[in-house]
Amino acid sequence: MSQNQFSWAVAANLIGGCFGCLITGLIRNKFGTKISIYIFCVPSFCGWILLTFSFNWWMVILGRFIIGIAASSFNFNVLVYIGECASKEIRGILLSFFEMSLKFGILFSYVIGSFTKQQVTNAVCASIVIFYAISFSFLPESPLYLMKQHKAEKAKKSLIRLRGSNFKIDDEMTNLKEEIEELERTKKPFWQELSIKATRKAFFILIAMFFFFQMCGINAIVYYTTIIFIESGLTIDPFIATCILGIIQVVSISCTLAFVDRCGRKPLLIISNAVMIFGLFGFGIYFHIKENINVSGFELLPLFMLGIFMIGFSIGVGNVTFVLMGEMFSLNAKRFFGPLTQFMNYLTSFSIAIFFPLVANSIGMHFAFYFFGLCCIFAIIFIIFILPETKGKTLVEIQKLLS
């Protein structure tokens, strides 16, 4: 497979993600979060099976496109499910587990892919989809969604399963009822929902946050890790270095889970971007110097710098951005603007997947990393002056804050 074909194989997943975002909201609104997740397990399984038995480039493209449709749905539905089911005291840490699971999945594929054939890796991923569907069947439907469907008794049973019988269920049921009544009273179609200040502000903030999420270069590094290490002249096996980078991601995000609801969203995001700036500019300088000077003796520096970048990404941007996604939209706004936000996220990621290798080959790898570092500087400015703090607030309180 040529580099151009590889780039489009990467991008096919993201094109599928864009398409999936457009239909996810419709399916979720009709069938609920839990059933929606079940529905999208089907294309996910089919996509992995297609990749397992693929024998040409087009089958790879089609398989990754189908998987992208399912992946974008999981991204949205899981965040919504956690945001609606979790209490405000632990919502942040539970939403952070979502990003940790993504990084663990990437590490899993790195490790399996390094020691087995690609077909085996794909078959294992297909079996994981089946396990996921079975295990998810033991979880209840979102009580907030059930209340919205006027199924109060089922919502109460769902809360008891989620909170335990000793929790003050009646008080929370009252809060849910009041919240649903308020949402029904203020329910509007898309164009009128956009006229609400809190919705507009949340949409603008999340579009910006996911733009900065992609423009820090995380997916360019994840998609092309092995190629980047080969170009850098790394002295150890690039596949082993890739696995090391994956381990750093998982360990870093695991160590910071407890801080999401203690330190707040903004401090973690600022520190995260600052650390990434150091790693990105350090990596860019290495490539810049490598073009003109012999860098013998410093071949491990790229792994060190990307390791710093991954630590920075994992302690804030990598998980807090998804926490904000689960917090900032009202239940009504999520119907329209949750999938639309994810659509823009996938579109930006698609652009990165296509243009990163072109920029790296035509202008230089160093230019791409300087650009990513500059975007992190702009992200810090945005976080300081525009992003509101949502730590410890209920979904209703966040809407009032945005208003």
Automatic annotation (TrEMBL):
What compartments host this protein? Cell membrane
NCBIfam families reported in the protein's UniProt record: SP (TIGR00879)
Name it. Major facilitator superfamily (MFS) profile domain-containing protein
A GO molecular function assigned to this protein is: transmembrane transporter activity
Q: Which UniProt keywords apply?
A: Cell membrane, Glycoprotein, Membrane, Sugar transport, Transmembrane, Transmembrane helix, Transport
Checking InterPro entries in the record gives:
MFS_dom, MFS_sugar_transport-like, MFS_trans_sf, MFS_Trehalose_Transporter, Sugar/inositol_transpt
> Topology versus the membrane, per the UniProt entry?
Multi-pass membrane protein
Gene Ontology CC annotations of this record:
plasma membrane
Quote the Pfam families the UniProt record gives. Sugar_tr (PF00083)
